[in-house]
Amino acid sequence: APSHHRTERLDQDHDGIRRAARLLRQGGLIAFGTETVYGLGGLATSQRTVERIFQAKGRPSFNPLISHFASAEAAFAEANMTIPLRDMAHALARKFWPGPLTLILPRHAESRISQAVTAGLETIAVRVPKGRAVEELLRLTGEPIAAPSANRSGRVSPSTARHVLDELEGRIDAVLDTGPCTVGLESTVLDLTGPHPILRRPGGVTLEELHDICGSTIVVEQGAADGSTPRPNAPGQLSSHYAPSLPVRLDATHIQPGEAFLTFGTQQTEGPQPDLTLNLSPDGNVEEAARRLFASLRQLDQAANRQGLTGIAVAPLPEAGLGRALKDRLRRAAAPRPADQTSPPA
Ligand code: TXA
Ligand code: MG
């Protein structure tokens, strides 16, 4: 059963990181910040622990997890790569690790990563995250750490320790408070198991940056681009995701009654003015907008209760660079949802 006791809050000093590593080694569930979002970590080698991760999140067990490593060497030891794949994986790792890139690779037959992490697939998702504290945590733990984003399944990913506690207090053993995340959107997921690299999820590393290393042959998965129906070989790419409790409407230039306005740069609405406007980046800086997106969606949800809001209208956003990931998250937030996701969190 998930741990129904107090969740420890740990500082990101040496003692806090040591304690977090110790709890992880003992099979605990520990949330920690990475450069992208907070992860809900546990030993990737322990089926028991990985099952607890799925329980704590309320995540369907067919949706596989990313394993996190202290080094590319440790990550690649879990994979079975032929020469051309090996060259590309190493080139990507040299350029982007530690950093917001996840690689899907063929799983090594003798990999110690639990089948519960990979949902029984023949592939594994690996990444080396960036950040002083998380890098030290992974080094001290000395084992691969499976970590989905530290939110309840289907909800908005957390970019602060407070966000984690709001949803997982009492369900995890500790949260290592590493401050607000510097990127604010999840890692880019690049699948290298087929004849061409496939972008499964746009994220902190942009498609333009990937082109520099992979050439122009990257296939952009349809679901990843427009939030539509998932492909069978990408079980995690559920359409409705990153969802605040308020309904989200995209590319809005007019406000409907009760809607808050989430905007960017100098964009304004025509006609009646909204009661509440949040600007993701008044300067029109897409990195700043990415960093603030998830906190802004949570802020709007909280304001909804106070101000009787009925929805979020989102201004048109740029497509280039990090804009691709930003728009992907907003499309998923706007996608049709199962009834149980539309009610406000308890
Ligand atoms: O930035 C991130 O990636 C954060 C931090 C904590 O590292 N983690 C994260 O994990 O976003 P999660 O579980 O929320 O998203 C992992 C994504 C899911 O869409 C999942 O389906 C996909 O990666 N994935 C994992 N293993 C896969 C595999 N073997 N094949 C295809 N997709 C996979
Ligand atoms: Mg997630």
Automatic annotation (TrEMBL):
Domain YrdC-like: 14-205
Keyword Nucleotide-binding in annotation: yes
Localization annotation: Cytoplasm
Region (Disordered): 326-346
Catalysis performed (reactions): L-threonine + hydrogencarbonate + ATP = L-threonylcarbamoyladenylate + diphosphate + H2O
Entry EC number(s): 2.7.7.87
Name of the featured protein: Threonylcarbamoyl-AMP synthase
